[in-house]
Every structure is written in C-alpha cells, then in structure tokens.
C-alpha cells in the first residue's frame, strides 16, 4: 500500500504550518483533518476506491495524467470509455479501474482556462470536484484521490485552481453527503503544485 499521510500527520511532522488566525476561513473538527491527505507522486499507483482522471470531453484518452491512467489501466478502460459517449465540461463519469490498483476511475472534464471568462472557468472547475465526489458517494466509495485538474495542458493557474479544489472538497466534506466519505487525497505531481497545496490546506483545514 502506498503511504499517504493525513493532513493531521503532516501538521504533526511540521510539514504544513497551521494557518495564521487571520487567514482562517473555517473551523474544522479534528476528525475532518484525518479525512484529507496530500500525496506527491503518480496517481496511478494509489490503491484506493477511485482515482479521478483529468480527461477531455471525448473520454478517449490523451496526454498528462489521462495518458498515464489509460496506460496503467490497459485497453479495457478505453473500451468502457467508448461506451460512455463523452462527457460535458464540469461533469464526471465513472468506470472500472481494470489493471490499476484503484477499483474505479472517475473521469471528469476540467475547463480549458479562459482568462477572458475567469468566473466561468472557476465555476466549471469547482463543478468537476463536486460532481466527482457526488459520483463517489452514489457508488458507495469511501476514498477518492484527485489530481490537480486543468493545471497541466488546460492552463489553469496553479494557485487559483488549488484554491477552488480545496474549497470545494471542504464544502463537500462538511455537507450531509460528505459524511459518507472516509478520505479525499490530493495528489500532486510537481513541486509547484505541492507548495500551493501546502500553503492553502491550512487555510481551509485549520487546526482547532
Ligand atoms: N499523477 C498525478 N498527477 C499527474 C500525473 C500523474 N501520473 N501526470 C501529470 N499529472 P493534465 P489538464 C499532473 O495536463 O490540465 C489530457 O491530454 C500535472 O502535473 O494531465 O486537466 C486530457 O486528455 C498537472 O498538475 O490535465 C485533456 O485533453 C495535473 O496532473 C487534457 O490533458 C493535470 O495536468 C486535460 O488537461
């Protein structure tokens, strides 16, 4: 099993500094801290109920994390995706995980960042996280791992995208449906993303 440290463990290790009181937007319970993790590495190695794929509307594969997931899952994943008839931006669809250690793949389609329509991009990105989490709950899944959707090929500024991702997950975990999830894992690939999560996680998930 891949080692994934909870936010609480990262706080204890001093890897994430608790937010300054002035920055705290929400108060969280200790329990919530144990349900959020940060992991750096490839999402394809995670043995969880579902990993989320940053796909495109065709759902037929591509580069980046999408390419890595399809390579690791094998051709059966593409065969199942062909039957789905694509997916609108901001929405999500679920498949099996095939050769992946993850049981399922939730394919979501992030927006191509449009600096002329920042609000629209933000709404669509938030919707990707929300719809993916809703699908997970509908399928009785307990653990969901997210890559940093839209921040690669689709050009979303890392800091803004990270803010949206963490805010949306926090809101979902606080909601009635959110109580059905055991763990949400944020998976970062590069160091820029890791830094952004380390800075923003303490704001949305402050220590009590
Ligand atoms: N594990 C975890 N994260 C990864 C991995 C990996 N193996 N590989 C890359 N990342 P991107 P997008 C990070 O471009 O911006 C595809 O062609 C990467 O560093 O994969 O939503 C699709 O088919 C970045 O932080 O997705 C679409 O056409 C994040 O994953 C388009 O790209 C997202 O980068 C979607 O673009």
| Average predicted local confidence, pLDDT | 95
Which molecules are bound besides the chains? ligand AR6
Low-confidence stretches: none
Identify the quaternary structure here.
single chain
Q: Biggest sheet: strands, sense, closure? A: 7 strands, mixed
Q: How far from one another are the termini?
A: 30 Å
Which strand order does the major sheet show?
A: 1-2-7-6-3-5-4
Shape: globular
Number of helices: 7
Radius of gyration: 16 Å
Class from helix and strand fractions: alpha/beta
Question: Helix-strand pattern, N to C?
Answer: EHHEEHHEEHEHEH
Number of strands: 7
Q: Name the beta content range.
A: 15-25%
Helix fraction bin: 25-40%
Protein name: A1pp-domain-containing protein
Organism: Irpex rosettiformis
Short overview:
This protein has 208 residues and is an alpha/beta fold. The chain has helices at residues 7-12, 30-33, 64-73, 75-82, 118-138, 158-174, 191-204, and strands spanning 5-6, 36-40, 50-55, 92-96, 104-109, 143-146, 183-188.
């Amino acid at each position: 099993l891949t080692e994934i440290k909870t936010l609480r463990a990262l706080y204890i290790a001093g890897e994430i500094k608790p937010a300054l009181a002035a920055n705290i937007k929400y108060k969280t319970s200790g329990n919530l801290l144990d349900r959020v993790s940060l992991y750096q590495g490839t999402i394809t190695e995670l043995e969880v109920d579902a990993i989320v794929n940053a796909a495109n509307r065709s759902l037929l594969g591509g580069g980046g994390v999408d390419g890595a997931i399809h390579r690791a899952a094998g051709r059966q994943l593409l065969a199942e995706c062909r039957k789905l008839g694509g997916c609108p931006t901001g929405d999500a669809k679920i498949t099996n995980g095939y050769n992946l250690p993850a049981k399922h793949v939730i394919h979501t389609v992030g927006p191509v960042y449009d600096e002329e329509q920042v609000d629209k991009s933000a709404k669509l990105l938030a919707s990707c996280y929300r719809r993916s989490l809703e699908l997970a709950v509908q399928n009785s899944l307990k653990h969901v791992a997210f890559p940093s959707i839209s921040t690669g090929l689709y050009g979303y500024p890392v800091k803004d995208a990270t803010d949206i991702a963490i805010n949306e997950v926090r809101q979902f975990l606080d909601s009635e449906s959110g109580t059905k999830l055991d763990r949400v894992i944020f998976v970062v690939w590069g160091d820029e993303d890791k830094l952004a999560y380390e800075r923003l996680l303490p704001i949305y998930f402050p220590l009590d």
